[in-house]
Write a sequence for this structure.
C-alpha cells in the first residue's frame, strides 16, 4: 500500500511537471534558414496542434500551417510551427501568425554570415509523433552565447509553488484539527467496543464453565 501511495504521488507530480514543461515558454538561440507553408493532415496527434486561426472554419481535418526551419550553433536542426493560439490554451493570445512569419523570413541567414535570433516557443518536438513546438515570438540577438533570463517562467513557477505550499499547510492544519481527532475517536470507540465484547465473551465463558461444573 505504501508503494502504491508513493507511486501515485510520483505519477501526479510527473504529469504536473510534463504539463508545465509543455505549456510554459522556452527560448532557443538559433539561425533561421528557411520559412515555408505546407498543408497538414491531422490525425491522432491533433491534440498537439492548435485550433484553426481566428476567422477560419472549425472542424477541419487539414489546413495550411506555417513552419520555420532553424539550426542551433552545434548544427542540430530545429523545426517550429507557427500557429495562432487565439483565446484557447495555452493562453498566449497569439493572433499575429502572418506577421511573425514575415519577421522570421526577414531574419533568414546563411552559414557563412549567420544572424542569430531567439525564438520563444512552447511545446515539444517529437519526430515519432510528428509534433512541433509553436513559435510565439522572434527577435534578433548579437550572438549564440546570449543569456536569456526566463522571468515569466520564474514568476509562474514561484506563484505555483506558493499556492501548493499554502494548500499543503492548510491541509495539514485541517487534518490535525479535524481528521486526526476523528480517527483517534474512532480508534478509541473500536477499542472500547473490543474490550466490551471481550468482557462479555469472558462472562459467557465463565457462565458456561460454571454450569458444566455444577452438573
Amino acid at each position: 500500500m505504501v508503494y502504491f501511495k508513493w507511486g501515485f504521488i510520483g505519477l501526479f507530480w510527473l504529469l504536473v511537471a510534463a504539463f508545465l514543461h509543455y505549456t510554459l515558454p522556452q527560448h532557443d538561440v538559433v539561425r533561421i534558414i528557411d520559412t515555408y507553408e505546407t498543408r497538414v493532415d491531422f490525425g491522432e496527434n491533433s491534440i498537439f496542434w492548435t485550433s484553426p486561426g481566428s476567422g477560419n472554419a472549425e472542424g477541419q481535418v487539414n489546413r495550411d500551417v506555417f513552419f520555420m526551419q532553424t539550426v542551433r550553433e552545434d548544427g542540430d536542426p530545429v523545426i517550429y510551427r507557427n500557429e495562432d493560439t487565439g483565446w484557447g490554451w495555452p493562453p498566449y493570445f497569439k493572433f499575429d501568425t502572418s506577421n511573425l512569419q514575415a519577421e522570421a523570413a526577414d531574419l533568414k541567414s546563411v552559414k557563412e554570415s549567420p544572424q542569430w535570433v531567439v525564438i520563444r516557443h512552447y511545446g515539444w518536438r517529437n519526430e515519432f509523433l510528428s509534433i512541433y513546438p509553436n513559435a510565439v515570438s522572434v527577435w534578433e540577438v548579437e550572438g549564440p552565447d546570449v543569456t536569456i533570463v526566463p522571468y515569466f517562467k520564474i514568476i509562474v513557477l514561484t506563484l505555483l509553488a506558493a499556492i501548493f505550499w499554502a494548500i499543503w499547510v492548510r491541509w495539514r492544519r485541517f487534518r490535525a484539527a479535524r481528521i486526526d481527532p476523528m480517527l483517534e475517536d474512532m480508534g478509541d470507540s473500536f477499542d472500547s467496543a473490543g474490550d466490551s465484547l471481550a468482557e462479555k465473551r469472558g462472562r459467557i465463558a465463565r457462565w458456561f464453565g460454571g454450569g458444566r461444573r455444577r452438573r
About this structure: Helices lie at 2-23, 97-106, 151-214. The chain has two domains: 25-147, 149-215. The mean pLDDT is 85.
